[in-house]
Amino acid sequence: TDTLVIAIDGPSGSGKSSVSKAVARHFNLEYLDTGAMYRALTWYCLNEKVDVEDATALVTAARTFPYVQGTSPDEEVIEVGGVDVREAIREPRISEAVSSVASNLEVRQILIDLQRRFIAEAKNGMVAEGRDITTVVAPDADARVLLTANEEVRLARRGLQLGGTQNKDQLVHQVSERDKKDSKTTSFTEAAPGVTLVDSSDLNFEETIDAVIAAVNTAL
Ligand code: C5P
């Protein structure tokens, strides 16, 4: 096809979202944050008092989820039933519950179908970012990148993002333990065949963007 699809995966705190948005701007593409979809569904379940441990209730919620997401890298739009949830989905209560929601395979299939639809409908092409984009959602993407950083760096970046007031135990809980839970359903610690690994441990933000752009250009 003539539209460009770029898949970027990585663990929590790897800088995926900000790097992916910058890469989308560089190539003039749309942008899809798939983590936001799992977070918004989790917000919806908590709001509707759906027990996230009840698989049947969870799948019903995923099927009826009234979701709207924008695809511009410059203006985030995330709505559930007309409610703007951009800030609410970043709250710790969501980060703590989201892995349970994302571990349900039927729920995943519903969101994966939706993600593939977003990608197919992106007229300008798209950068899609998450945990399983390079391997499951878009293994046929034009360029696929796994963005990592060592744990110490990811904890430090997450600490900055959260305002630097968290103690290390809370951070480890929010970053490393979530990654451990997520690794049971998605594979984002090693690059699959054909996926370019970009390790940003020793790179600043601009250098990381340049490294990902270089990896994309090499893959094209
Ligand atoms: O990327 P972010 O930290 O916002 O993702 C939130 C959660 O959504 C992850 O911890 C994971 O449980 C889930 N997720 C997923 N597959 C994706 C993207 C996110 O399971 N492609």
UniProtKB/TrEMBL annotation:
<comment type="similarity">
    <text>Belongs to the cytidylate kinase family. Type 1 subfamily.</text>
</comment>
<dbReference type="InterPro" id="IPR011994">
    <property type="entry name" value="Cytidylate_kinase_dom"/>
</dbReference>
<dbReference type="Pfam" id="PF02224">
    <property type="entry name" value="Cytidylate_kin"/>
</dbReference>
<keyword id="KW-0067">ATP-binding</keyword>
<keyword id="KW-0808">Transferase</keyword>
<protein>
    <recommendedName>
        <fullName>Cytidylate kinase</fullName>
        <ecNumber>2.7.4.25</ecNumber>
    </recommendedName>
</protein>
<dbReference type="InterPro" id="IPR003136">
    <property type="entry name" value="Cytidylate_kin"/>
</dbReference>
<keyword id="KW-0418">Kinase</keyword>
<keyword id="KW-0963">Cytoplasm</keyword>
<dbReference type="InterPro" id="IPR027417">
    <property type="entry name" value="P-loop_NTPase"/>
</dbReference>
<feature type="binding site">
    <location>
        <begin position="10"/>
        <end position="18"/>
    </location>
    <ligand>
        <name>ATP</name>
    </ligand>
</feature>
<keyword id="KW-0547">Nucleotide-binding</keyword>
<feature type="domain" description="Cytidylate kinase">
    <location>
        <begin position="6"/>
        <end position="217"/>
    </location>
</feature>
